[in-house]
Amino acid sequence: MHYGDTRPESLTFDPFKAIIAPRPIGWIGTRNADGVPNLGPYSYFNAIGNSPHMICFTSDGLKHSVVNARDRGEFTFSLATEALAEAMNISSEAMPDGENEFAKAGLALGTSIATNAPFVADSPAALECVTLSVTELTESVTPINRFMVIGQVVQTHIRDEYITGGRFDTVKARPIARMGYRDYATVTDAWELMRPGD
């Protein structure tokens, strides 16, 4: 099977997100213009640079996380895990500006060092970021009301119990990732593959 712009009738649901999977979840923390905490999960998210550390997330529409990251120049990423999955899901609700998703999901705010953006205190790891750019994406040259935010990591927070042998213990943290439809995956196993030059 192959197709272009028109999906075959036999594919009842769009498989795109299921093919590009699993995708890490950007659990983005910000504050609005009045300083109220905001939290939302984004599955179009990833690391995009190692030196300096940089991450990005994209949003369908100009949502609160994008506006806050743009206007305040900062945001955080908190690792979404199996233990925090229900809270992550609660924080995905579309709420009016000024509503506090941290409070709605029963989450404590972590204490940031280099920014004023909140993160999830109970997350095994979190990143404080300064916003480098906010760009409206286009199809050819036509804006499509989809926005990409790029940030540079300025502080990294790791809970001590998730450090094993000098490394962040990803399996112990049990992060969750988004797949297609309403499907998620949990990291429960890791294996090592050395490169030819190692």
TrEMBL record:
SUPFAM superfamilies: FMN-binding split barrel
Signal peptide span: none
One Pfam short name: Flavin_Reduct
Superkingdom of origin: Bacteria
Gene3D superfamilies: Electron Transport, Fmn-binding Protein, Chain A
Residue ranges of domain Flavin reductase like in the record: 18-170
Name recorded for this polypeptide: Flavin reductase family protein
Annotated organism of origin: Salipiger mangrovisoli
